[in-house]
Amino acid sequence: MDDIGQLLDTITEAMRSFGAEFTSIWLPIQIALLLLAAAIAYGGAALIRKRVHLASVITGWPNVIRQVIFATTANLPFIIFALVTGLMHTTLQEVTATPAHSYLLYVAASLATAWVIISFFAALLRNHFVNRIVAVSAWTIAALSILGLLGNMTKMLDSVAFGVGGLRISVLLVLKTTVFLLVTLWLAVVAGNFLDKRIQHTTDLTPSIQILLGKLIRLTLIALAIAVVLNAVGIDLSALALFSGAVGVGVGFGLQKIVSNLVSGIILLADKSIKPGDVISVGEDAGSVSTIGARYTLVVLRDGREILLPNEDLVTQRVVNWSHSNDRVRLEVPFGVSYASDPHAVRKIALAAIAGIPRILSTPHSSCHLVNFGDSSLDFIIRFWIGDPIKGVSNIRSEVRLALWDAFKREGIEIPYPVREVRITGAAGDSTSRKTA
User: What's the chain's average pLDDT?
Assistant: First the structure.
């Protein structure tokens, strides 16, 4: 309560000084100068934006320079206001030789300068909401420091506290921890993204190992950031034993699926059973693996749909990986010809027909076999290899069937269809028969 009283006394004293200054002519003069500076800043910024089209000028420039220029454009009124009020303060102080007569201009110039500097640093944060929160919070601290209220405000916030076990939690501790966490986590994410990009360009590592190392580096940096912040604000990690125990119980009862998917994702990346770019089939769905996340694996189907498969399902269920050790896949297409055809010639014609299809590999060699004497046809099966299953398998089967159709038409080989005989018996015992296809 003493800290709150000191803060109130400081504010009261400032108000008294402001009231005393209000009785003099210098306060209206400073207010008028501030209004003039605001008008100059608004008009000057509007004129500059109208004359200079930055979007067309900075196209193709480095991203960091463009961010700085965009931040400058966004804060152009505040920059002009800070410059004009700073010049007015210096001039008025030289004329009057009394700092109190230009104090309001000094405060306005300092607040505007602080906002400009903080906005430039906050512009590095791409998230607009976080950007605004950080900028407003930092500017509030700067404003309290400029007005001389930061010390008393800090003591007041620290006096409002409660204990949890052996840990003393105050409003000041919560605010400090939040600010430090935001800064350190942002730095950890930036460093993690930088290192991840460097790892992605390392050709000596497989894609799965690259993803695994990137995720481990991010998790390590985030854990270190949290530990550093807790230690910096004076929180004893042993005091969090109760909280960690509660988290452990929550994981055991309600978060086991999330933890299972996380561990399964690490297993998939470590044993390289599935990696980005593989063509897999899970049940009736088949597609290429796009990304392996912490909780799910993204599979893109041939029709453009994206399926989010839990990592646990890929570890515990049967998964067909068409390109696990290599990209070569053997496919087969069954077909039949009439009994009037020469089976030896059919085999040669079929192999020659598919030899010109670009996606079919010449090695291993394609093969064609007579597999059955059917009811109305000689049943064959033709087998061939492709090296790009990611481009689809149904389309290459279609190309093979069309090639066989064209070759058999050209050679006069008939593709039979079943013929059935239907007998219709009349009431008088007459019977007729008709053959239908």
Answer: 78
> Is 90 exceeded by the pLDDT of residue 283?
no
- 3-state DSSP: the chain helix, strand, coil percent, rounded to 5? 60, 15, 25
Q: Do strands 296-301 and 285-292 pair parallel, antiparallel, or not at all (unpaired)?
A: antiparallel
7 shares its domain with 146: yes
In a domain, 424, yes or no: no
**Pair (6, 122) in one structural domain:** yes
Handedness of CA 165, 168, 173, 177 (dihedral sign): negative
Angular region, 283: left φ>0, alpha ψ -120 to 50, beta rest: left
Peptide bond into 334 cis (omega under 30): no
Q: Does residue 389 form part of some domain?
A: yes
Question: Do 10 and 84 reside in the same domain of the chain?
Answer: yes
**pTM flag (> 0.85):** no
Q: Which domain holds residue 87?
A: 2-159
Domain finish residue from 217, 232, 254: 254
If one counts the domains in the chain, the total is 4
Confidence band, pLDDT 50/70/90 cuts, at residue 171: confident
Task: Tell the burial category of 125 from Cβ atoms under 10 Å away from its Cβ (0-12, 13-18, 19+).
Answer: middle
Residue 78 located in a structural domain: yes
Q: Are residues 65 and 144 in the same domain?
A: yes
As a whole number of angstroms, the distance between CA 284 and CA 299 comes to 13
Residue in the structure block whose two tokens are 């105050």: 170
- Same domain? 371 vs 307: no
pLDDT of residue 192: 84
Dihedral class, residue 234 (left if φ above 0, else alpha if ψ from -120 to 50, else beta): left
What does the pLDDT average to over 384-411?
89
